[in-house]
Structures are given as structure tokens and as C-alpha cells.
Write a structure and sequence with these properties.
By secondary structure, the protein is of the alpha/beta class. The protein has one domain (about 5-315): Metal-dependent hydrolases (TIM Barrel, Alpha-Beta Barrel). It is about 40% helix and about 15% strand. The chain is built from 11 helices and 8 strands. An 8-stranded parallel sheet has the order 1-2-3-4-5-6-7-8. Helix 1 (about 75-90) links the parallel strand 2 (about 55-65) and strand 3 (about 95-100). The longest helix is centred in the middle third of the chain and has 20 residues, at about 175-195.
Length: about 325
């Protein structure tokens, strides 16, 4: 019997055009200090999102990639033009696309509103991201947050949350852990006040190795705290950010915790392309790893469809 095709919407993809965009973070002299940064410091287009076999990519969500940090609408402009050009090529299939712009929550309200209004002029635009990481509390406590979040709330947009759920340097001591938890608590208060915004946790809060029990418990506790809010969703991706040599056994455990905590209706599998190439030979290889996880294989067909396609379809308004 032929296996059923798995339809995928990848809700976390980055594409690069080095000749048009700035991408300061990809330059070797700038952070993050990755020795293997050359693996991804090159052009990547929609045509590089290749899947085959029983997997079919019907759509993707482009997450801001630093194309132009001061004029975020420029990245949307480039992406929509590239997507349109691909559709116009005879015999070429172009996937449906949604876009997330890079927009700093700490901007002065007038500037934030101006930038947001320009982004709202693009059909693919559905939300914004401001990478919080360890600075979550400081950013979410700034004077401009309330006004700027209200603008997102009124427009019923998505806010992509990239924040670490545990102290990444456990040997530093209590002070850093308290800062991480303070950031999560500030985020929780923000979520509670903005029920129209869909908050999406990037990379599942960057889970630690489960061999570090202190960090693992902190990650789980913060995961449970945010799962209490119905407008919070979770993307499982980015394992390579924490550990280039992550194991399938660990990833299986992470997926199990995510589904148990958030439910299969609020979890999405995602690629983090091209960063997934730090650990896998190809985009296809990465997705095959996810689909071969024992936890995923044990799910019902409807649950598999939810994690790979249906949840992203609804949340990102395809």
C-alpha cells in the first residue's frame, strides 16, 4: 500500500539575498560567534525549499532575517517580488507565503506605528518579531511597550517570541536565572493583556539538554506557565542552535513535552531553514528526521496533519 503524502506548511523559514539585504548577523565579525557560519552565509531562495518522497511543501512562513533592520518593509517587498517572479515562470510551482517582519517593540510609538503601517501594506504580512533572548525583561519593561503592543492587538497580528526559557549559563548562578524568569513573567503579563495577539514561541523556548536537570526543569516550568494562555502557540525548531549534534532521542523527548504541555492543536513542526543545515545534510533530511521521531509516528493521522500543516494554516491565516 502506498504511503499517504504528508502536506507541510513550514512556519519558520529564512531566505537570504546577500546582494540586496544587509544581514549584519551573517558576517563573520559580528555575533553570533559561530565558527561554522559560512554554511549559511550565502543566498537561499524559495527554490531551495525542496522536499520529495511522501512530503509536499504547500506553504511557508518567512521569519525576518535581518534584510534591513531600520526599514523592515524592504524585506517584505523583496520577498513578495521574488515570490511573484517565481509564480510567473512557466512550469514553476510557487508555494503560498506569509511573512513576519522584524519590528522592535522598544521603538518610539510614532516610529513603530509608521513602520507597522508600511508593513500592513503587504498582502503576505501577518505579524512581527523582536528577538528578546536574555534581554526579555528589559525589552518588555520599556516605556513604549504598552502603546506598541496595543497597535499589534488592534490589528490582530502575530508576535513571534524568541526568548530562552532557561538560564543558558547555569554556572553563572541565581542572578541570571532570575532575569530569565523575570522576562517570562513580564511576557505572561503582556499576553494576558493582549488576547487578540497570537503569541508564537520560537524554537520551543530553546530547550536544554535533559542531562542538565536544573535547566530542564526551568524550561518545563516556563513552558507550562505560558501554556495557560490560549493565545500562545509553540513551534518546534532550532535544535541546532543549542547543539549542532543533537540526538533524535532528545528531540523525541522535547516533542513529547511540547505536545503534553500545549496539546497537538497548538504545536507546529518547523524547519528554521537554512540554519537546520548546521546539523542536517539537507532540508529534506531535516524533515525526515522530524517525521521519523517515535512520538510523531505514534500520533493519529489527524494529529500529524495538525503538527505539519493544519495548525500553521489556521494560525498564520493561509
Amino acid at each position: 500500500m502506498r504511503k499517504q503524502t504528508i502536506n507541510i506548511i513550514d512556519p519558520h523559514v529564512h531566505l537570504f539575498n546577500l546582494s540586496q539585504g544587509e544581514y549584519h548577523w551573517l558576517k563573520s565579525e559580528n555575533p553570533p560567534d559561530w565558527l561554522d557560519k559560512s554554511v549559511i552565509n550565502k543566498n537561499f531562495t524559495q527554490k531551495d525549499l525542496q522536499l520529495n518522497g511522501i512530503t509536499f511543501l504547500s506553504g511557508f512562513v518567512h521569519i525576518e532575517a535581518g534584510f534591513n533592520n531600520t526599514k523592515p518593509w524592504r524585506e517584505l517587498e523583496y520577498l513578495e517580488q521574488a515570490n511573484s517572479a517565481l509564480k510567473n515562470l512557466q512550469g514553476t510551482y510557487s508555494q503560498s507565503m506569509r511573512t513576519i517582519a522584524g519590528l522592535r517593540l522598544s521603538l518610539a510609538p510614532a516610529v513603530f506605528t509608521e513602520h507597522l503601517n508600511k508593513c500592513l501594506g503587504f498582502r503576505s504580512f501577518v505579524g512581527v518579531r523582536h528577538i528578546l533572548d536574555e534581554l526579555g525583561f528589559a525589552i518588555l519593561s520599556s516605556d513604549n511597550i504598552s502603546h506598541n503592543m496595543k497597535a499589534l492587538h488592534n490589528a490582530k497580528l502575530i508576535f513571534e517570541v524568541q526568548i530562552t526559557f532557561y538560564d543558558p549559563q547555569t554556572k553563572v548562578g541565581i542572578k541570571t536565572s532570575q532575569s530569565i524568569n523575570a522576562g517570562i513573567n513580564a511576557l505572561g503579563k503582556l499576553i494576558k493583556r493582549n488576547h487578540n495577539i497570537r503569541f508564537i514561541i520560537n524554537h520551543a523556548g530553546l530547550p536544554p539538554e535533559n542531562s542538565n536537570q536544573t535547566a530542564w526543569r526551568q524550561w518545563q516550568n516556563n513552558l507550562k506557565m505560558l501554556a495557560c494562555y490560549p493565545n500562545v502557540f509553540l513551534k518546534l525548531s532550532g535544535a541546532e542552535i543549542s547543539n549542532r549534534q543533537y540526538t533524535t532521542q532528545w528531540l523525541d523527548l522535547v516533542l513529547s513535552k511540547c505536545i503534553t504541555t500545549f496539546g497537538d492543536h497548538r504545536v507546529m513542526l518547523a524547519g528554521n531553514f537554512p540554519l537546520c543545515l548546521f546539523s542536517k545534510d539537507s532540508y529534506q533530511d531535516y524533515w525526515q528526521t522530524l517525521l521519523n521521531l517515535s512520538v510523531f509516528k505514534a500520533l493519529s493521522t489527524s494529529q500529524k496533519n495538525a503538527l505539519c500543516h493544519d495548525n500553521a494554516f489556521k494560525i498564520y491565516k493561509f
